[in-house]
Design brief:
Length: about 450
């Protein structure tokens, strides 16, 4: 699909969609709990549907309700009282890295005999060293390095060792899986943890379902930071109902468009005290020079004179494409550091952010693992490719608001991965988008 966008500033109010990261975690916990859970979730997307599909393949039942979902957990075996996954299940993770990295350890802990499939770049995205830890703890994984991937055998409780700098999803995946085992386990993470707020989201979901995790921080013998997550073996207990909060990662596109425009943009339905790290988009926009207003459950960004500054992507990798669009029209130089993990997302986002913003007239370059962006007054517009990456498609659409000529985005259907309503909301904010077949 091609999105043809006529340059125009955006303004107005849109409601936040449901947080994909929070939804993955709450739906998984609900499927592993001791009873039915109602999950209020006002929107869905391809990635959330992938997680639902995988849980259903393992034996959970997910009913669609008016406000969201009613999740019936994977049944327990009468004989042993433990959760019993359906044998021979195929878990189609679509293009969702979170789904694969969360459901693989979950399937291993259930002792499922399962096959994982997926699409797009998912098979190339790393699973190492999570996979090696699962193998060392009793699972037989075949087909590593691509998809399909199969698992057999049941994970044993114990100590799992992971580095902190590959993907926080490995740590979240193990945290979600280990309560299934009903015995104490420890996850030991060495080095500085990147994407750390996503682990906080996982711990929050576990706590909601009665699983408490003790976190110890300190240093290993070699002086490196070491974080230990200690699980005491307590199982998931349903609280009856839970609610998925608004998504800051996707609200960020509108808030950034607000900073780049001439009038305010408000996103409603957001928790201002959320554990989502991407809430820091507000702090970043304030450093750029935009004015921020916080009210109950909503954030508003007013344009200001934007100027570049230096920031780290360590805890906010998903904000990098859209913050780069803001930086493209901010005076002076912006440096976004610690971007190495962007290479292993739906596309190599260091490359695709640079290439596509440059195609639209920006001045962006990669220096080692950093992005260096020299601001220009206006972008030129032109043709951009989404590279099958939702955040690149949405970045280009936001860049169009400050282009002198129209922007054409090829592969615009990529937005469906996290935000099927994206172009509808773009129009609701006054944007002019026509969609056509490629
Ligand atoms: O746990 C999560 O929900 C996510 C963690 C992050 O990945 P990494 O930990 O691999 O950086 C983030 O980029 C991804 O979009 C969602
Ligand atoms: C990287 C993302 O998701 P995932 O890793 O779950 O595919 C994302 O939503 O930008």
């Amino acid at each position: 699909m091609i999105a043809h966008i006529a340059p125009a500033h955006l303004a107005g109010t849109v409601p936040a969609i449901a947080s994909k990261s929070v939804a993955h975690r709450l739906i998984i916990a609900a499927a592993l709990a001791n009873g039915v859970t109602d999950v209020t979730c006002n929107t869905s997307c391809a990635d959330i549907e992938a997680t639902i599909r995988c849980l259903e393949a393992l034996g959970a039942k997910v009913e669609r309700a008016e406000q969201g979902l009613r999740v019936h957990p994977i049944p327990k075996s009468q004989e042993h009282g433990i959760l019993r996954a359906l044998a021979g299940a195929t878990l189609d993770c679509g293009e969702s890295g979170s789904t694969l990295r969360f459901m693989l350890p979950v399937a291993c802990a259930l002792g499922a005999d399962a096959t994982f499939t997926g699409a797009g770049r998912l098979g190339e995205r790393p699973l190492s060293p999570l996979a090696e830890e699962l193998i060392a703890a009793g699972c037989d994984l075949q087909g590593l390095g691509s998809l399909p991937l199969t698992t057999k055998g049941r994970l044993r409780a114990g100590t799992f060792k992971l580095p902190g700098n590959v993907s926080s999803q490995y740590i979240s995946g193990l945290l979600l899986a280990l309560p299934i085992l009903g015995q104490p386990s420890v996850i030991e993470v060495t080095g500085t943890i990147e994407s750390k707020p996503y682990i906080a989201l996982t711990l929050q979901a576990l706590e909601t379902f009665g699983v408490s995790v003790r976190v110890e921080t300190g240093a290993a013998l070699d002086g490196q930071p070491r974080t230990r997550y200690l699980l005491d073996g307590s199982p998931y207990r349903t609280p009856g109902s839970v609610s998925v909060e608004g998504d800051w990662s996707n609200a960020a596109f509108w808030l950034c468009a607000g900073a780049m425009g001439t009038e305010c943009i408000t996103v409603s339905g957001l928790s201002l005290s959320s554990a989502q790290g991407d809430r820091n988009v507000l702090a970043a926009l304030s450093c750029f020079g935009a004015r921020i207003r916080r009210s109950t459950g909503a954030a508003t960004v007013q344009p200001g004179t934007l100027h570049g500054f230096t920031l780290s992507a360590r805890d906010v990798p998903d904000l990098v494409p859209v913050l780069s669009a803001v930086a493209s029209v901010a005076k002076g130089t912006t440096v976004i550091r610690d971007c190495s993990r962007l290479r292993i997302k739906e596309s190599d986002r260091l490359q695709t952010t640079t290439k596509e913003l440059c195609n639209l007239g920006a001045r962006v370059r990669i220096v080692d693992d950093d992005l260096v962006i020299e601001g220009v007054d206006e972008l030129s517009g032109g043709v951009a490719c989404a590279h099958n990456d939702h955040r690149i498609a949405m970045m280009a659409a936001v860049a169009a608001t400050r282009s002198s000529e129209p922007v054409e985005i090829h592969g615009a259907e990529a937005v469906n991965k996290s935000y099927p309503l994206f172009f509808e909301h773009y129009r609701a904010l006054g944007g002019s988008v026509a969609l056509s077949e490629e």
